[in-house]
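Both lines are retained for reference:
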Amino acid sequence: MAGMAVIEVPQWQGSSSLAARRLIDGARMLSEVLPPGPRLRAQLASSAGTTEGGVRNAGVLAGNLAVVRAVLAGAGALTPVVAGGDCGVELAPVEAAIGRFGDRLAVAWLDAHGDLHTPASSPSGAFHGMVLRALLGDGPGTLSPERTLKPGQVVLAGVRALDPAEREFVRRHRIRLVGVDELAAASALADAVAGAGAEAVYVHVDLDVLDPGEFGAVGFPEPGGLTISRLAAAVRALAGRFAVAGIGITEYQPRGPADRAKLAPLVQAVADAAAATPPGEVAQIEQHAGCTAPSASATPTATTTASPGIARPVRPDPSQRASGRGP
């Protein structure tokens, strides 16, 4: 693309972490360590709200969503690199990527958790554990996207803490999984995205996908995660094969200066990936997507079944633990 725009989104109200307000500083610090370029900051509410429809701080989050949508529009054709904030900040940028690339888009969801809850299944009511499910068409009320993904467009990578309801959703909809061990091969995630038939990819990075022995400045660390070098290699491999529709880095709860130094290789990989795709290639994909995508005024719907031969069914794995963050 023509370049990247860093979008700072200091949202904390979607998290169930006791130290969630640290996400405000985390978003700022992530924005600061990314390379020079256009910077946009979403001016979000700083206060908490009330629980509505089973979602904590629902009204505040809906207001935040409107702000982030407006800020993203100001990025124009630049590749958005979202510095979060809790995972709920990804609703607007992924929604925008769907609008640009339609069925040509895949989402690589690099996260220790599935973020596939609904208000009915969530033990905490925290929206950061519902955002991917919302993007798949099961969003709670005012936190529903204008455009939705199909299950076949999603690749879960590095996940190792699915709650039972999430595990059943993954099994039933045959969502692709790429395990931590598989990610030892830098090409594994790119291969899974290619299996979705995608030409463009949005990359979501929740920093708890990393092993806490290497990086633990997150609200809900889970053992057995990725190294920073493997995560950076996976991001670079994606950018080498697909147009990058956007990248989000989320759930950073700073503890000290050493955190930022550890993140340097990942931040550089993100910056390189965001700048990797020539504008002409993006325009061509957008043109193809425009030939097949429904009109923006159409009511978005989620496909509830994936094509058999494409998605890989999830195998029962006793090592998968229930999510400690209770999303």
Remarks:
- The radius of gyration is 18 Å.
